[in-house]
Amino acid sequence: MHLALRNVTKRFGSLVANDRISFTVEPGEIHCLLGENGAGKSTLMNVLYGLYAADEGEILIDDEVQNFSGPGDAIAAGIGMVHQHFMLVPTFTVAENVVLGNESTGFAGSLDLEQARQRVREISARFGFHVDPDSVVEDLPVGVQQRVEIIKVLSRDAKVLVFDEPTAVLTPQETDELMAIMRQLRDEGTGIVFITHKLREVRAVADRITVIRRGKVVGEASPRAESAELAALMVGRPVELTVHKDAPRLGEDALVVSDLVVSDESGLVHVDNVSFTIRGGEVLCVAGVQGNGQTELAEAILGLQKRVSGSIRLDGQELVGRTVRKTLEAGVGFIPEDRQTDGLVGEFSIAENLMLDRSHGLPFVRRGTVQRATLRDFAEKKLREYDVRAPGIASHAATLSGGNQQKVVVARELSRDLRVLVAAQPTRGVDVGSIEFIHQQIVAARDTGIPVMVISAELDEVVALADRIMVLYRGQVVGIVPADTPRDVLGLMMAGERPAGVEA
Ligand SMILES: Nc1ncnc2c1ncn2[C@@H]1O[C@H](COP(=O)(O)OP(=O)(O)OP(=O)(O)O)[C@@H](O)[C@H]1O
């Protein structure tokens, strides 16, 4: 199936998110769509998937103009979307999810459960997925859940698959496996659109690369291009891909976590007797596959988790038992991993989001009145510094692209008076140009002498920022190792193995 988008334009009010974009996908190719945050990639894919109607331009399949009025039409035409936030029902089995996907779109070839089981087995065998149709989705690791998404899409006979930042939630090993799956799909004749900010991935699988910037196609790049060249094309200027940092000037023990246990209502233990210390001026990176207690650890420091025992001391003062507000007031900076639920209020403006948690007093509030001029100057400065692409400080956070939302959260947290910074996946969804800046800001925070804890599923990020690395597995510390520990050793530790010579 030959797919073409021709001169697609999509506007949001006065903003032109897609400006006469033309883009094709041939059978049996992986076509990467690269672009900085807010360039218009998701918008273009939403047009392709029938979620948005283009203001101008057309979608052609085998040279015939299509009129999609919703995803059902796109799916019936053979277009499949593998979503980053999985659309699966966690308590259903794999086969039930596959049936559900077909029903909800009203796709003509609806499957019954037995047929669905059979399809899951067939597709799974063809691609070596090892997915059991009767497994309950929530019991499966994230990487396998993603395969279920792929199976669901393939079971509807998709000929073109769109992967929108599919590796954000995967481990390095799962990412490699996904790359292999994409290659195999391609070799069987599927056309693939691949959106990612990770240049390593682009260079590993792309057959063709189209770069868009500010809504327009700026050119094609060679899949053999160096990362630096791709980065520069994407953001329109040279980008520093490695973080420069001096040796840490270590201060006193500053964040001291002892015998920490975090469990949930059902008694399940997420953080299992964890102890570590971060000194002032030091970055401790917490590496681990998502879901091994990192989230709960970070939330316990902020005071978001209820069932906590043990101790978390910051500069000698106990944080356990404090309210979130008191913890924030104690100087805890917190970048949450899920910006949409925990980081931002979508209906608030960018400016309002930048002063969240700081509405109790100066500099933004004086005798109960918001200091509009101060807030405006501050917000405009942060928008410039962090290169947030938005019409202005009054734009609602919900209308920003994912990467730009992330920048607003990071800008807010790093501009408070901090005594510790806890940053969970600080650059998730952020383009290379802004990763550079955010990393510099995190290093600058460390160089002011505060302890910094960075939680990241990205080994590149861990290696770039860490002074030491702590690996968590099933809520326990596998080991705390030096920053120059080889990647393969870290990979093994992330799978729960403790290499010889590493102490817990
Ligand atoms: N529903 C909306 N209302 C108003 N503006 C929007 C809406 N959706 C997207 N935009 C704007 O359109 C532009 C393109 O956004 P889009 O999400 O397509 O970018 P992207 O390339 O996918 O970025 P990222 O890499 O950050 O995900 C951005 O400026 C964004 O703020």
From TrEMBL:
PROSITE patterns per record: ABC_TRANSPORTER_1 (PS00211), ABC_TRANSPORTER_2 (PS50893)
GO cellular component: plasma membrane
CDD domains for the chain: ABC_Carb_Monos_I (cd03216), ABC_Carb_Monos_II (cd03215)
Keyword check for Signal: no
InterPro entries, per database record: AAA+_ATPase, ABC_carbohydrate_import_ATPase, ABC_transporter-like_ATP-bd, ABC_transporter-like_CS, P-loop_NTPase
Keywords: ATP-binding, Cell membrane, Membrane, Nucleotide-binding, Repeat, Translocase, Transport
SMART domains xrefs: AAA
Superkingdom assignment: Bacteria
Domain ABC transporter: 3-239, 255-499
Membrane topology classification: Peripheral membrane protein
Claim: Lyase is one of the keywords in the record: no
Compartments where found: Cell membrane
Main subcellular location of this protein, as a coarse class: membrane
GO molecular function (one): ATP binding
Full protein name: ABC transporter ATP-binding protein
